[in-house]
């Protein structure tokens, strides 16, 4: 796996299936011992009921050499808890309702792009790339009040460049840093070896500073994520309101601004692309989904507006999206670390403080025990009846418990909007470049398609 000869999911899947009757099994990654939690009931207990024993993700990132170590995803303990409390208000349903108009505007630009380019590019369109441009625009406008117009290629060079540097660092350098970190973790800290691009850090720091200065000077108070970050900055950095003994600085806020850009672009783009791909090769599912979307639009007076419950009416769309999230698990595992000794319920086993555990997301999402014929794309798995048959802990695309993905609601809102508007205007078809099935990269990190997701679009005449 480390030299790129095997995908992460293949390694962890082998371990998962080697011990089919056990709740917990163990393995070493270099010198570090891990416990793999296989049992859904125990997974659910660890993530929710006994979360206080497993607060930390257990991904060791030195914040002095990687600014993302200060982000919500990688911070630990009380510092994570305080920052989560400060940032959560920016992702409530009420707050996100105000973003729909911006999402709709960006999606309309995407539709125009597809319409123009589908006429010119008879060989198809690589949809992951164009939807990633859309998601950059969405995060730019909804989170930071910036009109980037990335879809149309305007003012996007720097954002594309530095978002890519955050998400896709130099492969050889990343491998060297990972290997060194596994064998000699103190060396990276001692030598101050940077594990994230300095230019990208400086770029996002400059952008967020401009947003702060402009809003302060012009007394702008928008109901968005940037305002939530600014309030956290005011409370924790400027006024030092924290009572947890932690010292917060500007970099703690910048790191989370960077996290929202990185996490809010690549992941949504990937899932939307895989969903469109499955709709293209499963025309019956595409037709049924389009019928639901059309019916909901008529029911709501011909308007696509979150305030009139259009998106909430799309139950089959939720099933399709959930099945995409299941089949195309973006990450092989979910990580946790014991923050105190934990006696495993019903077992004569104590997980000691500091022990790292891994929850095999991909393997569980593809286990025939929970999902028969797991390689088949079947949204019917997510009817209320079918969901009630499966134990908790078997569907975790956003994690679960207090440390679930903070951007879950925004991601779901974007996905429904993108898919609904595309299906109302276009029939999605395979093209000559479409891979069936898709092949995937062997790199560490997020699971991505090797050759892109190529599709063609045929305008539907109303």
UniProtKB/TrEMBL annotation:
Gene Ontology CC terms: endoplasmic reticulum membrane
SUPFAM superfamilies xrefs: Cytochrome P450
Gene3D superfamilies, A to Z: Cytochrome P450
Keyword Oxidoreductase: yes
Membrane topology: Peripheral membrane protein
InterPro entries according to UniProt: Cyt_P450, Cyt_P450_CS, Cyt_P450_E_grp-I, Cyt_P450_sf, Insect_CytP450_Detox
Cofactor: heme
Keyword match Isomerase: no
Key words of the record: Endoplasmic reticulum, Heme, Iron, Membrane, Metal-binding, Microsome, Monooxygenase, Oxidoreductase
Subcellular location: Endoplasmic reticulum membrane; Microsome membrane
An annotated Gene Ontology molecular function: iron ion binding
Residue positions binding heme: 405
Transmembrane segments: none
PANTHER family tied to this protein: CYP9F3-RELATED, CYTOCHROME P450
Similarity remark: Belongs to the cytochrome P450 family.
Protein's name according to its UniProt entry: Putative cytochrome P450 6a13
Organism of provenance: Aphis craccivora (Cowpea aphid)
Upper classification of the organism: Eukaryota, Metazoa, Ecdysozoa, Arthropoda, Hexapoda
């Amino acid at each position: 796996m480390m030299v790129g000869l095997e995908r992460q999911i293949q390694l962890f899947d082998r371990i998962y299936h080697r011990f089919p009757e056990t709740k917990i099994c163990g393995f070493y990654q270099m010198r570090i011992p891990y416990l793999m939690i296989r049992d859904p009931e125990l997974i659910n207990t660890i993530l929710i009921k006994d979360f206080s024993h497993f607060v930390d993700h257990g991904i060791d990132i030195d914040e002095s050499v990687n600014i993302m170590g200060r982000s919500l995803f990688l911070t630990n303990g009380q510092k994570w808890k305080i920052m989560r409390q400060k940032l959560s208000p920016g992702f409530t349903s009420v707050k996100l309702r105000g973003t729909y108009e911006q999402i709709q505007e960006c999606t309309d630009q995407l539709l125009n792009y597809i319409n123009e380019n589908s006429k010119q590019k008879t060989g198809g369109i690589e949809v992951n790339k164009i939807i990633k441009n859309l998601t950059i625009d969405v995060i730019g406008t909804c989170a930071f009040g910036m009109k980037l117009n990335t879809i149309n290629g305007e003012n996007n060079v720097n954002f594309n460049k530095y978002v890519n540097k955050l998400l896709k660092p130099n492969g050889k350098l990343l491998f060297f840093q990972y290997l060194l970190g596994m064998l000699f973790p103190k060396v990276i800290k001692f030598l101050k070896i940077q594990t994230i691009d300095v230019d990208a850090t400086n770029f996002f720091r400059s952008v967020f500073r401009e947003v702060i200065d402009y809003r302060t000077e012009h007394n702008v108070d928008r109901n968005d994520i940037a305002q939530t970050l600014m309030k956290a900055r005011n409370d924790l950095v400027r006024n030092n309101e924290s009572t947890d003994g932690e010292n917060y600085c500007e970099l703690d806020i910048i790191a989370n601004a960077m996290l929202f850009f990185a996490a809010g672009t690549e992941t949504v783009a990937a899932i939307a692309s895989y969903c469109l791909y499955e709709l293209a090769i499963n025309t019956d599912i595409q037709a049924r989904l389009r019928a639901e979307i059309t019916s909901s639009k008529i029911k709501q007076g011909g308007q696509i507006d979150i305030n009139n419950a259009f998106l909430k009416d799309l139950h089959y769309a939720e099933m399709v999206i959930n099945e995409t999230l299941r089949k195309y698990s973006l990450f092989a595992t979910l990580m946790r670390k014991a923050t105190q000794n934990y006696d495993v319920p019903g077992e004569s086993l104590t997980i000691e403080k500091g022990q790292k555990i891994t929850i095999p997301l991909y393997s569980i999402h593809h286990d025939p025990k929970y999902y028969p014929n797991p390689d088949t794309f079947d949204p019917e798995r997510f009817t209320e009846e079918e969901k009630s048959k499966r134990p908790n802990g078997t569907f975790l695309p956003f994690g679960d418990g207090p440390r679930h993905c903070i951007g879950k609601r925004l991601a779901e809102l974007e996905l429904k909007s993108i898919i609904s508007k595309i299906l109302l205007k276009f029939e999605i078809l395979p093209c000559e470049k479409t891979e069936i099935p898709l092949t995937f990269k062997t790199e560490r990190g997020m699971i991505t398609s090797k050759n892109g997701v190529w599709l063609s679009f045929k305008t539907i005449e109303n």
